[in-house]
Amino acid sequence: MYNIALFGPPGAGKGTQSRKLIEKYNLAYISTGDILREEIAEGSDLGKKAKSVIEKGGLVSDEIIVQIIEKKIETNTEVNGFLFDGFPRTVVQAYILEGLLLKMNTSLNCMVSLEVPQDILRERMLERAKKENRVDDTTEVIENRLQEYKNKTIPVADFYKDKGIYYAVDGVGNVDEIFERITNVVEQSLTKTWLNVVLYGPPGSGKGTQGKLLADKYNLVYISTGSLLRREIKEGTEMGLASKEYMEKGDIVPDEFAIKLIEKQIQLHPDANGFFFKGFPRTIVQAYILDGLLRKLNSSVSCVFNLDVPTLESMKRLNKRSKTPNRRNYDMDTEIIIRRLESFQSRTKQVLDYYHKKNNVYHIDGDGTEEDVMKKLTEKLELAFRNARYLDLYFIL
To answer: How far is Cα 148 from Cα 30, in angstroms, rounded to an integer?
Structure first.
């Protein structure tokens, strides 16, 4: 899902550009003013509440605004995303929008601001007043609207600048010229969308081998908490010493260790295309943790793959690995192997169920040669990436 907020002062041309954007990208148009008028015309409960407030000269509360936006979102299921015109107008509304989109497991991808000098804005609105016979667009009213925009809405721009998704666009020129500038920004923001992959599978399923190959193929940062912890142990760090006992028993280390390791890897790769998580999260709590870590970066898990490998085959592979230089300490102990397999079945099933509800899980038959499994994963990953990155730009450009 791809979501845009179109920002700009009165007279900037948001309405005209909105119509072109929703047609090009198949977005649902959300203008609080338009939706309020629709609700009032329909005589809905929300419309009646809004009408009562407006007739008394008041401003419709954020509570009512939230309800009408949520209703609009829930009734538009066949679109690629949403275009918010003139919303949010305050920092409070910016936080409201964050919460609404979080509820839908999505987020705002870009805030596009149409920049137009005030003298041109005044000319446009006065001309519009003449053409449309709008008696309310007097010079005094125009000045008040521009001042209100400056006072309330500039902090909203700062909010999205801090998130790194604010784009200023020159709003002067003919309609097509401005639209081209906007679409250039939209497509630029799309290429910044991280693709984050989680790869699951029981011990011995080949996650490490396949994960590294796929991460390299798609230029993603490979994150294996197990590998990172083994490095900490080898280097004798405080975390390594604390982790060693858990690792040797085949147990899951405390979650705070994983958080520190993942945050460190993310910070080391600010220009990454995305991240490839091998075997993490392993518990439902860790799934919430990963969501929180990625949400801080205005991102989320794009797709989840599970390598389906029979238990007996996993044990054969682990036994084979125990005779190679790549063996792990726990490969040598049958009791630990069984405990790890049981832990995967019991704990990780919950995590897969969690991601199944988000409709981004792909099951892959992990039986076969490395080349066969790689081919299966690549085919599904291409499909997942197209879906995750708004059809991977194929239907946009």
So the answer is: 21
